[in-house]
Amino acid sequence: MCNLYSIVPNQQAIRQLAMAFKDSTGNLQPMSGAFPDYAAPIVRNTPEGRELALVRWGMPSSKKALLDAARKRADKIRAKVKPVDFDELLRREPDSGTTNIRNTASLHWKRWIGVENRCLVPFTFFSEFNREAGGDIWFARDESCPLTFFAGIWAQRWTSVRKVRTGFETIDLFGLLTTEPNAEVGPPKGDAGDPHQAGGNRNLDDRELVRGDSASAAVAGWVACGGVEGSETRQTFHRLSAAADR
User: Per the database entry, which stretches of residues form a coiled coil (predicted)?
Assistant: First the structure.
């Protein structure tokens, strides 16, 4: 599960390769690290055409995920012998977002799979955390680290509580689409690390290889075509050498 990536090329290179006709990012600087729940550049479909924009990373989580989280919080409050207004607790349940989307057949994600909610997420290299290997392991298309794109989806003006201290916010959001990993990115055989354990191994839910690449045909195939399955482009990713690790 990718929760850290970097973007080196300038915005002109991104606009040109993604054929973006509008740019609302201002003076976009290279990003050594794009992190969940922070703004990062995407190229999204809009009624006026493709736009390069800064959008928060993390799509709205499912109702079930929020319900489960609210129940856990309610149990902790009840354990302190305090009253709980569960409906209000659920309404204000913080949701930092879902960064990686795997099951596009889910009813929760289907509303955003249409062409109007598709986007491209530029990156140069991305990281998979591996505690046994000493931390972040970096991957790219090859050692030259060319500009590449994750395929993604975005949601417009979604209202939710992202952080307790900020309360309700109405913001645009995006997430990455993932699928099965290749042998280089995937976990070693026999690795049974708990994907939910804090500070543990990388998420072992074997859906990790991105859709979309740096070729114009594949870029257009995702943001312009009407289907989902027909637009998938599987890519082989290369683990960067220690000298190239970012």
Answer: none
